[in-house]
Amino acid sequence: MFKRGVVGASSGNHAQALTLAGRLLAVPVTVVVPDDAPPAKLSGARSHGAHILTYDRYRDDRDEITAGLAAEYGYTIIPSASHPSVMAGAGTVALELLQQAPGLTTILVPIGGGGLAAGTAVAAKNMNRDITVIGVEPGSGADTAASLRAGHLVTLPAVPDTIADGLRHTSPAQLPWEVNKMLLDEVVTVTDGRIVQAMTWAFDHLKIVTEPSGAVALAALASPGLPPGPTGVVISGGSIDFATFRSIMGALSHTNHAVA
Asked: For the whole model, what pTM was predicted?
């Protein structure tokens, strides 16, 4: 099925996972990645031998590019979010989290295309039907929150301007959206300032280096009105190089923000 190769579109993290799997299974991998993706994500994919095709996220449609490559070369498409197996794989995060901390009453999870949130919600609700699952988006890229308010898929008018490069979606992926609208209890948003504060707090207190997209759920811990009780936080990525991390931390110190 995969002997001709696979292709997937990604902001960077799915690309790295796909290319690692391809290397382990000796399957050729092509990834379609925005040309402004962080260097750490691109180098991670290249290190596993992927063929990388970049596109302009402001002008091009990555799904059309991916479909065209699949049709031309016979590649199998591996979506970053909208596939049952991809969502199920993402759900193992919640499975392991609740196995280690069964007393959790709330889980905070980032939302980009929605696959991680959907998998998390399915796994968590299956293990504890009373648990609260809250999705978190950057305020300037809250396409899932807008869709939930409208009751149908909403497409943002422009690519979101946010530090969370992996969450700059203009619309939720179809299949995760069908799950999330049923199972997510709430979607909250956080500012870029809060995201940077969360990155700093994670580094200072947990000794964890997170990329901005990976820190959005942690940033939401400072949001008012969260349910009381033990809360699990999904920190979903650390693909950031030292220079970028230092630059972000420097920007925070210059603005004299208090750490969340």
From this structure: 0.90
